[in-house]
Write a structure and sequence with these properties.
Elements: E1 11-15, H1 20-31, E2 35-40, H2 43-55, E3 60-64, H3 70-84, E4 89-92, H4 107-135, E5 138-143, H5 158-178, E6 183-190, H6 196-202, H7 205-214, H8 223-234, E7 245-248
Parallel strand pairs: 1-2, 1-4, 2-3, 4-5, 5-6, 6-7
Helix pairs in contact: 1-8, 3-4, 4-5
């Protein structure tokens, strides 16, 4: 039986792939055989990740990319196409979170969250999706959040929650449009994962106590546990999965 998780010969783009969850996604897909393009705003972390992958025998390219700008995304897409000749997998991982009460949220903070978390996903899916549709094949995995399905507590984050709900619906909408054209589109919704951002939140005693009480498994997830979920959806093992939002949250949303 063929290994349905084998990505040998495929080309994957990971936005925000230089650090955190994105970096472990890049490592995982490369370990499964894919050639990687690290699309990252910070050229230093992008190059560092690409160097690490190459040192471990993988093919990798660092591409400075600002997902807030459609022209930057298009330039990234063209660069990857010129380098590898195709894109088989797109992982839209770049994202930010802010914690503000709605009545205190300034316009620029709202726009920053939406421009990265929603516009960025749309621009990347549109640019790369066009190339996938031309070939009649491809797999897109968008990183949403359990916050797109529930309202977190005790921290205020309405803008972030709204942005991730938009990612989930955008994913489903594209999946429906492209299902018969060979392109699958799914999302992974992490719960609280042990990243720098979550660890900063854990410094707040009230937040940490509430979060841990709300997670049935009683622990934070690891970036690699999210990467494995992405690997599944990007692989042929998920050939009948499209429009799916895979929640990986230690049971948080089960209550």
């Amino acid at each position: 039986m063929n290994n349905l998780f084998d990505l040998t010969g495929r080309v994957a783009v990971v936005t925000g792939g230089g650090r955190g969850i994105g970096r472990d996604i890049a490592r995982t897909l490369a370990g499964a055989g894919a050639e990687l393009a690290i699309a990252e705003l910070d050229p230093g972390t992008a190059q560092d990740c690409a160097n690490e992958l190459r040192e471990n025998g993988h093919s990798a390219l660092a591409v400075e990319t600002d997902v807030r700008r459609a022209d930057s995304v298009e330039q990234m897409t063209r660069r990857v196409m010129d380098e590898f000749g195709k894109i088989d997998i797109l992982v839209c991982n770049a994202g930010i979170a802010r914690n503000s009460l709605v009545e205190n949220t300034p316009d620029d903070e709202w726009r920053e969250i939406m421009s990265i978390n929603v516009d960025g996903v749309f621009y990347c899916c549109r640019a790369v999706g066009r190339r996938m549709l031309e070939r009649g094949s491809g797999a897109i995995v968008n990183i949403a959040s359990m916050s797109g399905s529930i309202v977190n507590k005790p921290q205020p984050q309405a803008a972030y929650n709204a942005s991730k709900a938009a990612v989930i619906m955008l994913t489903k909408s594209m999946a429906a449009e492209w299902a018969q054209r060979g392109v699958r589109v799914n999302s992974v919704s992490p719960g609280y994962i042990s990243t720098e951002m979550t660890r900063r939140g854990m410094e707040n005693d009230d937040w940490r106590r509430t979060w841990m009480e709300m997670i049935p498994m009683g622990r934070l997830g690891t970036p690699m546990e999210i990467a494995h979920a992405v690997w599944y959806l990007a692989s042929d093992a998920a050939s009948y999965a499209t429009g799916t939002d895979l929640i990986v949250d230690g049971g948080y949303t089960s209550w």
